[in-house]
Amino acid sequence: MILHIYHCTLAELRDYKRSGGRNRPSGTGKWPEKAGEADVAFDPPTDGFKNPDLGRLLSLFQKIDLDEPDAVLPVWVNWEYLEDELGLPRERVSALMHEASQLGLMRRLTIDYDHERWMRHSRIKGCLVIMTCVEEGDLRRETGEIVRAYCEAVDDLVRAESPKGLLAKGHELHRVIVVPNGHLNARSGPGLDWSKALPILQALPPALEDSGYEASLSSYGYEKLIRLSINAHKRGYTLRVV
Length: 242
Known about the structure:
By secondary structure, the chain is α/β, with parallel strands linked by helices. It has six helices and seven strands, in the order E-E-H-H-H-H-E-H-E-H-E-E-E. The chain has helices at 52-60, 79-86, 90-102, 115-121, 143-158, 194-210; strands at 2-15, 40-42, 127-133, 175-180, 214-217, 224-230, 237-241. Helix 5 (143-158) packs across helix 6 (194-210). The longest helix is centred in the last third of the chain and has 17 residues, at 194-210. It starts with a strand and ends with a strand.
């Protein structure tokens, strides 16, 4: 099994349905049945700061949904500014905002986090996003053996006492996102049958949870919108073969 491990302060993986309904060529398989059921999002944690009020303040700016006009938000729309800049009346500007929301072009106000400093000042050091490729040889191994090796590879990175570890004493990392990715293994043949690889992948999150992590398995077979902020250190990206 091939693991590409990314140490992230932010991770968002969403299934993306193209116009016309085509996601992948027929016959490649999909899991789960409906797109979006296994979407995953991890925002920079706000509960890891020494000053809890600072964390509470930052959390208010993480979920600013422009889709909900009646929501209580820490910011407001400066309608007069928009009217002056566009040279349009309020009704027209409001209609354009609604159109942008309906088209999915503008749903949330994006805050430009300084991810490196955020992680530096928080005791919770982000999450791991693990692009995971099940190989043909893994089908001849015991699933329990593969799962144990997988969890040990994660522990080796997360444990503070590990010489290869990401964390110093007193720091924490709880969230692990497993992402099925057969493209990591270069092959000349058609590749591994996805239905044979899926049971191995599905066994990983429960085993990680038994080891004390919050784990989830991202979807397979759907085109994705992926947004990662990878920590800028020498182990921000790690390759493991287990």
